[in-house]
Amino acid sequence: MRKHLFAAGALFALGTNTALAHITLETQEAAVGSTYKAVLRVPHGCEGKATTAVRVQIPEGVIAVRPMPKPGWQLETVKSKYERPYDYFGSQLTEGVKEIHWSGGELRDDFYDEFVFIGRLTDFAPGTLLNFPAVQDCAGGVHRWIEIPAAGQNPDELREPAPQLEIIAGTNDG
């Protein structure tokens, strides 16, 4: 019996470490039409080296994006035109933030941190999976969390999967 408990615990620990090895979103589902607070969790550096920059791409249909500044880090955004206009509380938005860059800080390999932004989720169909490709620059290395899983593929099967959000039915705010 103890042998089985140990094996189950070891498998759980391995699964947990695999999940912690990636940049992930803290909340991995959100309602269509809601304002979503994205918390990118960065659990480690690159092969022992400190993280010095984090960049994330914003998928089409996530609008009115506003990143949270981090003390000790520079914050830049890249804006461009949306593929189509989006209604935003009675106004038509035709462009907005498509990338966010935090740089110049230092997140040691043995520490954990979070990078935060908000955005409005537009008229996605429930079940839609949104990918937020992220690049983690480190002193002497890089992780490109940009791999998009094929339909039906488990993102954990990928070496460097992009953080992913599932759209669910309903709205949770106005």
Anisotropy-based shape = globular
Number of strands: 12
**Order of strands across the widest beta sheet?**
6-7-4-10-11
**CATH class identity:** Mainly Beta
CATH superfamily: Uncharacterised protein YcnI-like PF07987, DUF1775
Query: Span from first to last CA?
Result: 53 Å
**Unreliable stretches, pLDDT < 50, 5 or more residues?**
1-20
Q: How many domain units?
A: 1
Order of helices and strands: HEEEEEEEEEEEE
The structural class is mainly beta
By DSSP (H or I, 4+ residues per run), the number of helices equals 1
Major sheet: 5 strands, antiparallel
Architecture (CATH level 2) name: Sandwich
What is the CATH fold-level name? Immunoglobulin-like
Helix content range of the residues, please? Answer: 10-25%
- Overall mean confidence score, pLDDT: 88
Beta-strand share of residues? over 45%
**Radius of gyration over C-alpha positions, nearest whole angstrom:** 18 Å
